[in-house]
Give the backbone structure.
Amino acid sequence: MVKRRSFIRSGLAAALAVAAPYPYGQVLAGTRSASSLPTDIQAITGERQNVTLRRQDIVDLAARIRGRILLAGDDGYEEARQIINPSFDRRPALIVQATGAADVQAAVDFARDNQGLLLAVKCGGHSLSGKSTCDQGMMIDLSGFRGVRVEPHARRAWVAGGSLLGQLDHESMAHGLVTPMGTVSHTGAGGLITGGGFGRLARRWGLSLDNVRGVDMVTAAGSFLHASAEAHPDLFWGVRGGGGNFGVVTSFELELHPMERQVLGGAILYPIARAREVLALYGEVAAEAPDELQIDLLMVRPPGGAEGVAGFNVCYCGAPAQADRALAPLRQLGAAMVDRVQGVDYVALQRSGDSSDPRAEGSYTKGGFVEGFSPALIDALVTPFEAHPARSTVLFAQHSGGAINRVAADATAFPQRDVMANVLCFVNWRHGDDPSVHVDWIKAYWDGVEPHTAGFYVNDLEETHSTADIRANYRRNHERLVAVKNRYDSRNLFRLNANILPTA
Ligand code: FAD
């Protein structure tokens, strides 16, 4: 039996499962009392130098914020330091649980003024490379800073910097409005939007970042800035694709679009023995699909000899009368093992791939963009997929193209406007088990796939990506990103990300 968690990015559960309850949303508050502080604390800077944080400075920070400061041993520290992937078991020297932009400013000032403390910013905690937590530095935890306000007539939403995607889908759809977001509702808006934002509606209306009309940000100087096409346009350009490199976004202004709540969603699956045909068909159909059709590719091989599957996970958000015509090319392979594409509530579909216990399993992912599905790529993906380790191995391709690819490569900092899909291979394991067999298998598998890729999605940044990889990945936009970095974060306070090295 394939574990449900294995489908987490596939949304296959859209066709097979009931939506999980929305798990977050509480607002944290209350300051730390000065008497509860220990003596000075040892921490490290971004340059990995030791630094002593003075007790009085922490007392002053506590007095300046409305949220909480958590130190090791405090109630809530263990919970707050974690991110979704429990493999990143890191212990910040202090955690600032910000409740608003003023708290973020105070925390940034503190980090900067303490010799540039190593600084992590956590929103939804989904970072695949563990960049939203750190050892011995400061974490700014935005999970108490969530909220969405929709202005239906203006077709705008304002999203607080710590919000999760599900909040936005829920609030905007209540007005018959949407904007493209990712496919797992407990992913954070802060990381997803600043790095890209692929999902079920992106081929119709672009990446999440293409729908940003303005941001409020706290920069490394502690300045609170509004960036848009008119105000700080360089920063506005950079923050749409440059991730967390330039500061902390405290509010996103997003354009909304009218859409029927009912869409078509679900899976069409074949036995894995037909994987080559499935991948070849995907390459053809994904290239020609209408913007309203999102087709993700899926290939799963469960452990223990059970038969795997290969197929498509679809969302069609266009006119119902055109649906059969749009989907027909996907059904060319004849009778499927599973064909459950059906009318579904969009917000429920967006929650259908959620995990009820996201931290129960570790995971390891390799990924890269592809421009098409050549026979050589199909061979690299299918042939070694036979040799899987003990847990389910999942191959997943998130469909690009459509409106995403009609944006110029230099219109935002996100340059990969020419790709067909983002291909990911991942494996999960029960937290506590030795993952090396899984990790080694994925690495060896990916060695064969990587030559067929065209860069990677910065939101899928891996620990192994070097500065040179990041520079190459931003293509011609890198030089301009360096200029924005020099202007807004010349000392690289915000370095736990796909880091743009300042040169100033
Ligand atoms: P966090 O780990 O909290 O933050 C990641 C980084 O984002 C931080 O290091 C920081 O640099 C930056 N950051 C966070 N908040 C802010 C802020 N307010 N201001 C400035 N910088 C900030 N991607 C897609 O495009 N589509 C998908 O459908 C999709 N599904 C996913 C499903 C799962 C289960 C997972 C694990 C990942 C998925 N992703 C998807 C990838 C996702 O976009 C990235 O992991 C993204 O970084 C998650 O954002 P977060 O806020 O949850 O992450």
Summary: The CA atoms of residues 90 and 135 lie 5 Å apart. Residues 8-9, 83-84, 121-128, 131-132, 142, 161, 182-184, 187-188, 190-192, 194-199, 243-244, 248-249, 459, 496-497 surround flavin-adenine dinucleotide (CB under 6 Å).
